[in-house]
Amino acid sequence: MAMITVLVQFDLPAPVSLDEASKTFQQSAPKYVAVPGLIRKYYIRSEDGAVAGGIYLWESRHAADAVYAGEWLERVTKLYGGPPRITYFDTPVMVDDGQVVVYNAA
């Protein structure tokens, strides 16, 4: 089974500086430390500060779907002023720390 990478993006109501984004991200990061099935999360902000979001690596689509519903969706929609764009990607191969990792051998 392949891992799942999810790109989550929010159009912000007003651009935010890198410092502002970093402070907001640091406050939310502890909520993701023990989320079942989450392997890694990168917080992202566009260079112009108009878009923010995250890139997530999940063990499965099921684990991702368990988070991107209900309370999470309501919370982030309120926080960022609108619903996110969520795009799912199969992740059968990646390079991690100089090593090729295969999750789905064909």
Describe what this molecule looks like in 3D.
By secondary structure, this protein is of the alpha+beta class. The protein has a single domain (3-102), classed as Alpha-Beta Plaits (2-Layer Sandwich), CATH 3.30.70.100. The protein contains three helices and six strands; from the N terminus they run βαββααβββ. It has a four-stranded antiparallel β-sheet. Strands 5-6 form a two-stranded antiparallel sheet. A hairpin with a 5-residue loop joins strand 2 and strand 3. The longest helix has 11 residues, at 18-28. It is globular and about 40 Å long.
Order of helices and strands: EHEEHHEEE
Task: Give unreliable regions as ranges.
Answer: none
- The separation of the N and C termini measures 10 Å
CATH architecture classification name: 2-Layer Sandwich
> Per CATH, what is the topology?
Alpha-Beta Plaits
Portion of residues in beta strands equals: 35-45%
- Mean pLDDT rating: 92
Q: What structural category characterises the helix and strand content?
A: alpha+beta
Q: Give the spatial strand order of the biggest sheet.
A: 2-3-1-4
Helix proportion of residues, in percent? 25-40%
Q: How many structural units, i.e. domains?
A: 1
Number of E-type strands: 6
Question: What coarse outline follows from CA principal-axis ratios?
Answer: globular
